[in-house]
Amino acid sequence: MATEVILPRLGQGMESGTIVRWLKSEGEPVQKGEPLFELDTDKVTQEVEAEAAGVLLKIAVAEGEVPVGQTVAFIGAEGEDVPEVAAPSPPDARNRLLQGEAEHRTEPAPAPESAAAQASNGRIKASPLARRMARERGIELSGIRGTGPDGRIVAEDVERAEAGGSVAASNRLLQAPTAAGDVERVPLTSIRKTIARRLTEAWQIPVFQLQASADMTRVDALVARLRERDPEIRVTVTDVLTKVCAQALMRHREVNAEFTEEAILLHPSANVGLAVAAPQGLVVPVIRSAERLSLTEIAGVRAGLVGRAREAKLRAEDLEGGTFTISNLGMYAVERFTAVLNPPQAAIVAVGATEERVVPVGGETAVRPMVTLTVTFDHRAVDGAPAAAFLQTLKESLEDPGLAL
Fold first, then answer.
1. Contacts of 175 by beta carbon, 8 Å cutoff, 6+ apart
2. How far is C-alpha 262 from the geometric centre of its chain's CA atoms?
3. Rounded to 10 degrees, what is the CA torsion of 344, 391, 226, 222?
4. How many Å apart are CA 226 and CA 83, to the nearest integer?
5. Which residues contact 183 (CB under 8 A, 6 or more apart)?
6. pLDDT (tens digit, 9 = 90+) per residue, 75-86?
7. How far is CA 186 from CA 109, 193, 197, 253, 261, in A?
8. Closest Cα to residue 328, out of 258, 272, 382?
């Protein structure tokens, strides 16, 4: 009997997902654990693997939004009969059609595959994000040389092809240019819709901000020594920030909190989220129990999370359970800024650029590397005094990392 392929639940609270692209065609053999289709959820875009081996007998849902548990395909023995499956009808499908959006959902035909970039089954090896970027930008994957593992095409390869002028990109330049004044329509992805919804929720929360500057002399020296000692594990200032924030959260548990209508929840561990500007949108992968990890362990976890975020390969569990968030725009030379709260968390710290400033030191003036920290608090869960104490601990720990390490 043919095995049903159902849309999986990839995270807590997931009710539906959007099938972006099938990686196998009807009639093709499928191995258990082999990528079967790309699924876009409100948190991540990832490949869904086959849970059975056989032949892909039928694709019941080619693309579009599908509720969790819906049958989307059948895998079985070649020639085996499969039952009919009613197509899913998302609640807003009629509205989308009435608004004329259906005509915009048509995607370009799959790009011809070159032998140089094909896997053993004839399919071009590329990450889900790279495939999406190539479709949106009209670039043929067959004209791109992959730099990922085993020649896999990654997002950076697509960006280089567009900027450097691959064969497909050159062909696009021959097309008629867009008339001046035309509005480009960028459909909302599930992730972008989630970002918009969560920011709207955050805007309704009563918040307040506290700000302080910290001398980063000792942090910079610590990072330099750690890199010299172990160059293979590249410890960064963000890793030190993660560690000192985690230790401060354990000392001031009122900040490591969540407001609910019935109670304020004080979390037992510091699960520190890092705001990452990934190509698919802002994501916040989480370093769990950061207070228990060494700096080198945090560096390893952070590198893996950021790498997966930029390759659109984050798992749902990578994004769940955060109790505090760090948003760092220092690399963009932003001196200071205010970050929007990340519900249901009670606090988020915005980190600006480290810059040389003239400051008083021991009754004299000196030039020191200074950073400005701006922490936004949910006033329903955190009062001013404990919030100020948390920021004071954070400042002291950065100026003397030995206090937190």
1. none
2. 31
3. 170
4. 61
5. none
6. 988 888 877 766
7. 19, 12, 17, 42, 37
8. 272
Closest CA to 359 of 210, 219, 241, 216: 216
Give me the residue label for tokens 């932003």. 334
Task: Please identify which of the residues 104, 252, 267, 379 carries the catalytic annotation.
Answer: 379
**What is the number of helices (H) and of strands (E) in the chain?**
9, 19
DSSP secondary structure string, 258-296?
Answer: EE-SS-EEEPSS--EEE-EEETTEEE--EETTGGGS-HH
Is the pTM for the entire model greater than 0.70?
no
Comparing C-alpha atoms, which of 395, 122, 360 is closest to residue 252? 395
Q: What's the whole-number mean pLDDT along residues 268-279? A: 92
Residue 104 is a catalytic residue: no
Burial 95-112 (b: 16+ CB within 10 A, else e): eeeeeeeeeeeeeeebbe
8-state DSSP, 204: T
What six digits make up the tokens of 80?
A: 């085996």
DSSP for 143-163 reads: G----SGGG-B-HHHHHHHHH
Phi, psi of 192, rounded to the nearest 5 degrees? -65, -40
Give the C-alpha separation, 55 to 326, whole Å. 46
Locus of tokens 């030379």: 333
Q: 316 in helix, strand or coil? A: helix
Whole-angstrom Cα distance, residue 33 to residue 306?
24
Cα distance between residue 31 and residue 120, in whole Å: 13
Q: How many other CB atoms sit within 10 Å of the CB of residue 194?
A: 17
3-state secondary structure of 182: coil
Q: Is the pLDDT reported for residue 248 higher than 90?
A: yes
Placement of tokens 């890092």 in the chain: 274
Give the pLDDT confidence of 81-138 residue by residue, as tens digits: 877 766 555 444 434 433 444 444 444 444 444 433 454 445 677 766 677 677 667 7
Q: Token pair of 157, please?
A: 């390869």
Antiparallel, parallel or unpaired: β 71-76 and 54-59: antiparallel
SS (H, E, C) 208-226: EEEEEEEECHHHHHHHHHH
Q: Is 399 helix (H, G, I), strand (E, B) or coil?
A: helix
For 11, counting Cβ atoms within 10 Å of its Cβ (0-12 exposed, 13-18 middle, 19+ buried), the class is middle
Distance CA 285, CA 297 (A): 16
Q: Which residues pair with 329 in a beta bridge?
A: none
